Predict the 3D structure of the following.
Amino acid sequence: MGERQWQWTDAWIFVSLVIANGAGRHRRAASSRRPLGVRLADVLSTADHLNRALPERQEVEVAIRRLVGSGLVSVTDGWFRITPDGERLWRTRPHAGLATTVDTVQGALSRQHAPGDADWHLDEAEHAAAVQEYAVRSIPSPRRSPKNHARRD
């Protein structure tokens, strides 16, 4: 793997972060002290939706190190955010269908930025907890029968 070239996995994680951040903003109250951004379980959920696979711990760690090091993403206290440079890359990428978005972003990354190498690590336990959180959230709730909730007068 070329260390100085963007990999498909880097683009997959970046696109997952962008989509998860856009989808997650409505869940934060304006008065919340939490930073804007998403948790790892949100990133994993979006990555699974895009590629029908969960990224492994090592894949996430390497991609985030490269994205943070190049100034496109930031991570603070477990909150993943897209930086203004990352938003600019997303807005100016060539537009294509969702099926080719990761490939398109990988090309845009290669043309506009060099991969960085930030000092960021993803603990096995933290990754496992995020996978578990995602798994629990993705189990559909049982449907309730309307007759079980009929009013009793």
The mean pLDDT is 86.
